[in-house]
Amino acid sequence: MSDIDEGLRGELQRQGIWVTSMQELYNWGRKNSIWPLQFGLACCAIEMIATAASRYDIARFGGEVFRPSPRQADLMIVAGTVTKKMAPQIVRLYNQMPDPKYVISMGACAISGGPFKQGYNVLKGIDRYIPVDVYIPGCPPRPEALLHAFMELQRKIDEQKLSGSNKAEHLRPDQPSEFPVPAFGAHDLEPAANADLFRPPEIQR
Amino acid sequence: MTPNPYFFIVIFIGVALIFPVIPLGLAWLWRRFFQPPKPGAEKNATYECGVESLGDAQIQFRSQYYLYAIIFLIFDVEAIFLVPFAVAFTGLPVGAFIAILVFLLLLLEGLVWAWGKGCLTWAR
Q1: Taking the domains of chain A in order of start, what are their residue ranges?
Q2: Is the residue at B99 inside a domain?
Q3: Which of A145, A163, B44, B85 stands the most exposed, by the fewest C-beta atoms within 10 Å?
Q4: Are B40 and A178 an interchain contact pair (Cβ–Cβ within 8 Å)?
């Protein structure tokens, strides 16, 4: 499945012949029908609802059908503060989504705990347990920001490879599809982070 | 020569078979050559809004709920029958009128019975 020469493709297009590859067709179909999981946590969810409603209209990008079941969803928008009580449920919902699946971490809380970072009950970022594709800063981010994140995700899907050594994760048999669900410990969630997934940068002082 | 009048049913069955079989076949080929299946205990578990499911789904309801069933019949099912009855009231033959009256009386008897039993008073 070699890439088509852009010049040749342009030449053919002028003659009315459209050339595509299986990978392009696959990614084109996938990126234009991303169905999010209908699932909100806090005030960011209000912005997510606004994005889905008529004024901002995420349907223009193929994300109109918010699915009430993870079995039918492609995208999880973690919209809001993730409390430690809620984190296992989120990981379990993520696990129950079929591949390929994507995560948008929406707002300061879902990224890092945000203004509640010092709180004893707030998870300091959902990327401690599940892989996040796009992060949106903001408190809460405006619907335009969510749309931008959605377009970034589409760009990311468009670049995924169908074959070769660096093909997309859901096509590789060695990549996991589900991640361990944290348990409620005596003082904190156990484990506090998925060590295979969460590698924060070392702070050099 | 005219085709058999039921021939369209054969076409219908054919389309109804081909329509789901093609996407299923494509999905099977896709799984076979590109996307390896990744089942898992968590992934295949019953969806319970993210919570682990507890117990069995095949449970028995308490028989005391029969009161709700009776009152549901009286107030809800009766209303569904009463609306078309009221619409067609002036044009009804005597037989149909008596039939619906018997039906109403049966339900009225149920209402009187439920009232007498004290089901309509708030439990304190």
Answers
A1: 33-161
A2: yes
A3: B44
A4: yes
A101 and A94 in contact (C-beta within 8 Å)? yes
Coil, strand, or helix at residue A51?
helix
Distance CA A109, CA A201 (A): 19
Most A-contacting residue of B29, B31, B32, B38 (CB-CB within 10 A), to test interface: B38
CA distance B5 to B14: 16
Assigned CATH for A33-161: 3.40.50.12280
Q: pLDDT tens for residues B14-73?
A: 999 999 999 999 999 988 888 888 888 889 888 888 888 888 888 888 888 888 888 888
Residue B40 domain flag: no
Q: How many CB pairs under 8 A join A and B?
A: 43
Decide if A90 touches B, using CB distance below 8 A: yes
ipTM here: 0.74
- Of all residues in chain A, the one with the smallest CA distance to B35 is A171
Residues spanned by the domain of B74 = 63-117
Using alpha carbons only, what angle is made at residue A154 by residues A78 and A2, rounded to the nearest 5 degrees? 140
Is B32 contained in some domain? Answer: no
- SS3 of residue B9 by DSSP: helix
Whole-angstrom distance, CA of residue B101 vs CA of residue B113: 18
CA separation for the pair A122, A135 (Å, rounded): 18
Query: A173–B38: do the CB atoms touch at under 8 Å?
Result: yes
- Assigned domain for B70 exists: yes
**CB burial readout B29-59, b (16+ within 10 A) else e:** eeeeeebeeeeeebbeeeeeebeeeeeeeee
Contact A62, A54 (CB under 8 A): no
pLDDT one-digit tens code per residue, A33-55: 999 999 889 999 999 999 999 99
Closest CA to A1 of A29, A34, A25, A18: A25
